[in-house]
Amino acid sequence: MGPRGPAGPRCCALYAVLGALVCGLRPAAAMAASDERRLASPAAATPCWRVEDFVVAQECARCSSFQVTVAECGPTGFIEKINCATSKRDEFKSCRSAVMEAHIFWRFVGTMMCVAAVFAVLVVCRQRVLDRKALEKVRKQIESI
Predict the structure, then answer these.
(1) Label partner for 71 (CA 20 to 30 A): which of 2, 14, 29, 99?
(2) Residue 31 carries which DSSP code?
(3) What does the DSSP assignment read for 78-113?
(4) Exposed, middle or buried: residue 115 (CB in 10 Å: 0-12, 13-18, 19+)?
(5) CB atoms within 10 A of CB 54
(6) CB neighbours (10 Å) of residue 11?
(7) How far apart, in Å, are the Cα atoms of 92 and each of 59, 85, 95?
(8) What is the per-residue pLDDT across 40-97, written as a single tens digit (0 to 9) for each?
């Protein structure tokens, strides 16, 4: 570290890692934010699947091009059709597919492996610098004898 903070390449590496982590968390944050918005707006009617039992009529699938305009497609890009038992209404519900979850998991694992590799390289470089400094110090002590 320099007198005014981290050195240039180290600072850039840190920002890159933080940026990758933030990008990796975006889908979960978007889903939570949309749920909060939906709960906060009193004008929106409570969906039947929140207050009664339901049966999944169509499994979780990626939204088609014409379904993208449906509000439930926004948070995750996946939607499932449900049938509420008491009211007998068909509604759509945002869902998280297993494929998407696996993709997010492996992206996280890949990001962590890259972060580990970057820090391993930084440790090796730092160790070499410290070894050089120690050897230089020993050499100067030997020369002074």
Answers:
(1) 99
(2) H
(3) EEEEEEETTT--EEEEE---HHHHHHHHHHHHHHHH
(4) middle
(5) 20
(6) 13
(7) 11, 14, 9
(8) 444 457 788 788 888 888 888 888 877 777 778 877 788 888 888 888 888 888 888 7
Q: Residue for token digits 């993709």?
A: 103
Alpha-carbon torsion 56, 61, 66, 72, what sign?
positive
Residues in the chain: 145
Residue of 141 and 73 predicted with greater confidence: 141
Please name which of 53, 73, 76 lies closest in space to residue 65, comparing C-alpha atoms: 73
Site of tokens 């049966």: 55
Q: Which residue has the higher pLDDT, 20 or 143?
A: 143
